[in-house]
Amino acid sequence: MATHTANTADSPQALAELAAYLFTRRESILNKWRSACEQDPTLGRVSALSREEFNNLLPLVLNILEERILNKPSEVDATTTAQAHGLHRWHKAHGLMDTLHELNHLTQTLFSELRLFGQLFPRVERDVLLDVQQHISGLMQETIDGSVAKYDKLQRLQATNRANTLQQAVDQMAELSQQRGDVLRQSTHDLRGSFGIINSAAYLLKDEGLSEPERQQFVDMLSRNLGTVQTMLTSLMDLSRLEAGQEPLQIESFDAAGLLQEMVASAQPVAAERNIILQADGPPSLMVKTDRIKLQRIVQNLLLNALKYTRATPQRTAIVAVSWSVEGDYRWVFSIQDSGPGLPPTTVGTLGQQLKPTVEPTSVLGPDQSEPVAVLPDDLPPIPAPADMDASTRPTKGGEGVGLQIVKRLCELLDANLDVESKAGRGTLFRIRMPIHPTV
Questions:
Q1: Residue where a domain stops, chosen among 137, 165, 193
Q2: Could you please report the per-residue DSSP string of 41-71?
Q3: Rounded to an integer, what distance in angstroms lies between the CA atom of residue 12 and that of residue 206?
Q4: Domain limits at 353?
Q5: Is 302 exposed, middle or buried (0-12, 13-18, 19+ CB in 10 A)?
Q6: CATH no. for residue 299?
Q7: Which of 163, 190, 270, 423 could bond to 365 as cystine, CB 3.0-4.6 Å?
Q8: pLDDT tens string 116-165
Q9: Interhelix angle for 58-69 vs 78-91, to 10°?
Q10: In terms of domains, do 271 and 131 share one?
Q11: According to the 3-state scheme, what is the secondary structure of 120-138?
């Protein structure tokens, strides 16, 4: 091997020549480093990185090495550079040991270049080579320490985020469990009240001194509350089956527009009795593939609730509007909007925590409500005492909480999103988005 001479009388001159040599050999150093990493069987992700991705900030580390060899102030902080390199490798899904092995290969490559320089320039003082070796060792140790520190910080942040996510999930499950318990307790309270009215009506019917109109009033009251009890028990049984997973899907192709039109037509007598204008708007045909019966149950729950709580007054026309349309090639949407009293702000957000979110803002009830808000219905009013049974002729909201729980479960089964918007004194809008075809 040919040898070259270097002026060793002055160590700074030798260090300058060594620094110049390493700079000239930089491309070879980086290529040798990559080759060593690719040949390491413990490193499996190197080939997936481009040259720029693999080198990342290590050329800056070599700049810092040159500045230290020449005893110049560093323009770049070694620790910051090392941490940034660690962050880059983290984002590339490299493990900590992979990064440490890579840096160890770079250290060995630099040592190899230092030995080669000693062979090419044999008259260079040994102390100069030892001094540069110490610079290499120190800088690479700082690089390793910085990368390890960054990995440690990222792992602690990741662990904290996981713990927070798990805690949020636990808290949400506890809250949902409490909400479910509240619904069931309210339903129990309503059932107890209805049974109380039934018992009182049955007892009063035994009075032989009742006039025929009074007797008929108590019979009507008895019949009405028996119907309420039957409806609530049926809803509770439906909810129980849904939660137990006993409602398998029966997927079929059918015309959703035809189904909605039929349901609106069947509800027209109820709307007419309550002086409500019930309108339906949408394309005449909309072929979908889903569970027809479960879709019908969703529409029935929401439509009957809208008719139940929307009232006409001399000052205000009562309207319930049902509409449907296609959204792109994969989804369709139907909405039920009423002109009722709306829902109170205190109930906002409960149902939304249990349903899949909608990606884009779609509010239509007001500019101050940029996104749909999911809400639960008003708190159920107390059942009147037997002495005030005449008040039971007013519409009640018993079972609505169970009804929305059923809607929620059915939406989950059908892979649907439910948005609810409400504005006090203006009304409530339920909007459901569903896939045109079931997802695989």
A1: 165
A2: TT--SGGGS-HHHHHTTHHHHHHHHHHHHTT
A3: 118
A4: 207-435
A5: buried
A6: 3.30.565.10
A7: 423
A8: 999 988 888 888 899 889 989 988 898 888 888 888 888 888 888 888 88
A9: 160
A10: no
A11: HCCCCCHHHHHHHHHHHHH
